[in-house]
Amino acid sequence: MAAEEALTLPAEELTQLARSAGFDLIGFARAEPIPRQVLAEWIEAGHHADMDWLAQRLDARLDVAQLLPGAKTVVALACNYWRSDDASPVARYARGRDYHLTLRDRLRALRRALRSRFPGVADYGSVDTNPVMEKVWAARAGLGFVGKNACFITPEFGSWVLLATLILDAQVDRYAEGPTTDVCGRCQLCLTACPTGALVAERVVDARRCLSYQTIENEGPAPAALRPAYQQIAFGCDVCQDVCPLNVTPVLAGERFSPRPVAGLSVQQLAALTPDAYAQLTPGTPLARAGYDGLRRNAAYALGASKDQAARSLLERLVGDPSPLVADAARWALEQLG
Ligand code: B12
Ligand code: SF4
Ligand code: SF4
Questions:
Q1: pLDDT digits (tens, 9 = 90+) for 226-257
Q2: pLDDT beyond 70 at 97
Q3: What is the CATH classification number for the domain harbouring 119?
């Protein structure tokens, strides 16, 4: 937008547009650069594991003006996704339709509404995969704070929210003062409950040790020392959120986040999935990211970790699986059964 026609947008109206588009929480932050230190030190320490894309476009990640020239405002957006307390080896965020699709649909609806109401305002939208530090923006925009479990926690929905951002080259008439009060206090429950010690300091995750990274992002075998921690965990990990007292009164999210049948399978059923069943059950869900072999690898570790004797014959069959990843996981699991 040209400087001479600089426009100040009404935050209240933008909030209503975002609400109509399906977002539960909306806040506004000035598009000021993020200090380099935290992200640079995290990467320097190797905490990003092999997610090299986090180190790429570092300057853009820290300065949204590199993504949208003339950026003035970052609109932080959050969607509650909690559906039920049902046990599942799949983390809550991944039980239904892929949230990237749902949040992108909502972002598209918001951008359409914005462009029709305020033509000439340029925007840049992001859900998860763009080089945008979404928790930092959600904190700056006053939607909540980053807890000791490194998750973004809101007063309304606890940490059961997924984030998106919309960068604008116009200012708004109201900005947040910063994060809400950090109410972790002296609590340490997440730090002590993490089954692998991946929370190496308050708010700092070492992805190499995190079961979320290992079950979703890692394409190879998991380090042997971590495998015993796969108790009933086959995709993602919610342990540090489940123990959090700030999550005790969740709010039921809309139908869009309903679990799909794949989330109702046990670890044994996941390990035994046929290619056909996998092709039927996982498309359009986050589980597709792990791939057929990755998901069965995880499930085999989980069977070994829980020393599930009933899984012996399945594991014996998987030892001969054409995927070396699955065969290796099954061999390890059988050793655990004794
Ligand atoms: C890389 C990544 C991961 C990695 C690393 C995790 C991590 N904590 O960084 C792995 C694969 C392990 C992972 C796991 C999970 N992830 Co993830 N992940 C991301 C991703 C792509 C980038 C995060 C990043 O930049 N990390 C680098 C570190 C250094 O930065 P940071 O995490 O923001 O933390 C620093 C800042 O927040 C800063 N800070 C804190 N407060 C403030 C305030 C201000 C004003 C400032 C300036 C800075 C600041 O301090 C922190 C460092 O100490 C984001 C999406 C995105 N584009 O942002 C999703 C995201 C963080 N993940 C998400 C989810 C849901 C998860 C899981 C819960 C999934 C699961 N159930 O398995 C777990 C949670 C694990 C955990 N305890 O954190 C959600 C978070 C939702 C929420 N409520 O917090 C996000 C935002 C995706 C989304 N679009 O919704 N994830
Ligand atoms: S997601 Fe699981 S492994 Fe990762 S930090 Fe939280 S409790 Fe630890
Ligand atoms: S478990 Fe305790 S320390 Fe961890 S995020 Fe929740 S309130 Fe904070």
A1: 999 999 999 999 999 999 999 999 999 999 99
A2: yes
A3: 3.40.109
Query: Global pTM?
Result: 0.97
Distance CA 231, CA 83 (A): 22
Q: Which of 231, 117, 113, 120 is nearest to 169 (CA)?
A: 120
Please tell me the distance from the alpha carbon of residue 104 to that of residue 107, in angstroms, as a whole number.
Answer: 5
| 63 in a structural domain | yes
Using DSSP's 3-state secondary structure scheme, residue 55 falls into: coil
Q: Which atom of ligand 3 is nearest to the CA of 240?
A: 1
pLDDT tier for residue 1 given thresholds of 50, 70 and 90: low
Candidates 50, 63, 105, 128; catalytic one: 128
Nearest ligand to the C-alpha of residue 243?
Answer: 3
Residue 5 in this model has a pLDDT that exceeds 70: no
Number of domains in the chain: 1
**Taking a C-beta distance cutoff of 8 angstroms, is the pair 234, 270 a contact?**
yes
- Per residue in 282-335, pLDDT (tens digit) is 999 999 999 999 999 999 999 999 998 999 999 999 999 999 999 999 999 999
- Sort 45 into a burial class: Cβ within 10 Å, 0-12 / 13-18 / 19+: exposed
In single-letter form, the type of residue at position 60 comes to A
Ligand 3 mean position to 204 CA, how many Å? 13
The arithmetic mean of pLDDT across residues 23-48, rounded, is 97
Range(s) of the domain holding residue 85: 3-172
Give domain status of residue 265, yes or no.
no
Mutational pocket test of ligand 2: of 42, 194, 227, 244, the residue with most ligand atoms within 8 Å of the beta carbon: 194
Asked, for residue 112, whether it belongs to a domain, the answer is yes
Q: What is the band of 7 on the pLDDT scale with cuts at 50, 70, 90?
A: confident
The half-sphere exposure of 52 on its side-chain side, counting CA atoms within 13 A, is 0
The reply to whether ligand 1 has any atom less than 6 angstroms from the CB of 135 is yes
